[in-house]
Fold each of these.
Amino acid sequence: MSELVDRSRSLEELEGQRWPDPSEDTPMVKNVHELRRRPIGELQPHELARLIGQDVGLPWLLPVAVGILRDGAPRQAAGGWYDDDLLSAVVTRRPEVWACAPELARELKETVAVLVDLSRYVKPEVDEFLASLPADI
């Protein structure tokens, strides 16, 4: 996973690959194709959640998403709003993804340890993520 992400570049630029126009015209497919063309730094948390949930651009987007979650954790612990959609998208990635990025997994583990009063929808996902981590993380 890339620790330092050039947020001024799009996924297309970072991957060096332009996807052809989608053969499916579903809103999801069209949206994912459009989001891949935008600079990462312009993507909103819900847009990151959409891409991550589709396993698109994970080496570049997961570090950005974990940073957003980490930075928001103290506000959530103090009673503020937290982006459950982004958290859900991140913690539900396959264990193999986290095995390739143990430092990032450790950072996410430390982040979720700070969170309180998680919604009943995302709490089981967080618990499953934590249970899937090796003991040394």
Amino acid sequence: MAENWTLHTSPGAANDPVFVGVGEIRTGRFPERGFVEALTRVAILALKDAGMVPRDIDTILLIPNLHSAADQADLVFSRMVEELGIHGSCKSSYMVHSGGSTSDNAVRAAHGLIAAGHAQNVLVLQCERWGSADLNEMITMLSKNGIPGEWELPTGIQFNAIGAMITRRYMHASGSTPEEMAAICVTLRNWANLNENAMFYEKPLTVERVLSSQMVADPLHAFECPPMADGACAFVVTSTENAKKRGIGHAVRLAGSGGCVSHYCLSQEPDQAVLGWPLAAERAWNQSGWGPQDADLLEIYDSYAAVTAIALEGIGIAPKGEGARWIAAGNGDPGGRLPLNTNGGLLSAGHTGVGGGTALLVEGIRQLLHRAPPKRQIEECRRAIIGGTGGSYMDAQVLLLERTKLGA
């Protein structure tokens, strides 16, 4: 049985942290778009969405990039405080980093700061330029970073190979077919076709095309590997009390949070077809008071299709061994029973490095605020499951978000 940790805030409490605004710009390859320019644009968009101006922000949490040490150094040394014109009034600017699960941990950091009274309005910022970065440098980075130099790097392991091993193990354990795995990519593309900010907007995909694309790392074809992209997004967190004072009628709160760090070396993961999802989900359910049957949408990390299928089983959405078939049956599609990755996910909206999970989180918040474009807004959605994972799928992180009414 998982430990029954509890959140130290309750719905409607003055210090209960809530999400009140999001910002995002187009994902793809935009070499002419500057790094700081993109961060500033999404910051202003998120603030406008929240009904705020830069001077309202007292804390900035930064999600790092992997494309440039120089750009990252600028962030560490408070570049964005000055760009937003809040030097002097901003109390703190710092970085949170855990790879693809960074957004989950940034939420926890913002939640703790506000609940404890250390911050009033927190702006979380992310930008990545994987699509425009030097390709050779990106290949080197994805072939070395986070892969144990003593034990796994000498064998030629890199991230597509890691994705391939997890996929092969999952297919063996579940009996899933190549067609079922490819269908997950098609579901994500169906959502991307509704998202004007997605890298593959209005670019339809079929199972046949996925399976006829170039083999990259058996059994993964090119369309089953995440496309590197430029992108940026942001969100604003404040307290329930502050939101009410601003006349905000509805917001999104964190109902539960659970995580499990299961390994560093992939070879030390006891079962690559399970990973840390069951324990992470149980910890989150224990906090929230609701379960998988209560969710209205899913935003689950999808750098490879198998990662998402495994997560759905561990979270309790699909029976063990049925994750890929659950998606292939159309359950997560537009109009399906439980919408999955409504922005198109990493595989079709674009993989923005550490920000891939942030984009899914931002989409979940947007949906619960009922501010998505009409063609992809999930009608009357109230609860969302957010799932993130980092590195060689070293951890599983689950956030349970719910829409809350703040007005009288």
